[in-house]
Amino acid sequence: MACVLMTQRDSIIDQLEQLHQRIARRAYELFQGRNGFWDDPFGDWLSAERELVWKPAVELREQDGNFTLEAALAGVEAKDIKIEITPREVVIKAATEHTHAAAKGEIHRCEFAPGQVFRSVTFPKAVDVSKAKAEYQNGLLNLTVPIAPEARVTRVEVKAA
Length: 161
Hints:
This protein has 161 residues and is of the alpha+beta class. It is built from two helices and ten strands, in the order ββααββββββββ. Helix 1 (13-33) packs across helix 2.
């Protein structure tokens, strides 16, 4: 299993805003490419988003006082994955590349594209970021992080006086 770089952050809002701005600029370029006809602005946005960002499938599970997040990142190398985590959310980022070698035959169809992996997930409860662990194997990223003690539900027994 490969280890993955993790960084603790106070907030990921700035990153989300930067990504939003990149998508908006690309959507506007697509709009301009049609000479400014307001044919399908929502479609432009979705096309720009697909061009710029790959949003991998994830599963978030809570068990035994921990959250486990599994993300499908097939084709990405562990050294290219960056995780930024706050007590309430996590961002998974990576750059993807794809090239064709001329010596490997004629390409008839290719759906691989270079781009950026960007996935943010909000935890339902606060987590202890100092104890987060990430592993990457066979295209699956597994992040395990304990629920913060103050976020855990504790039962208090009431005794009659």
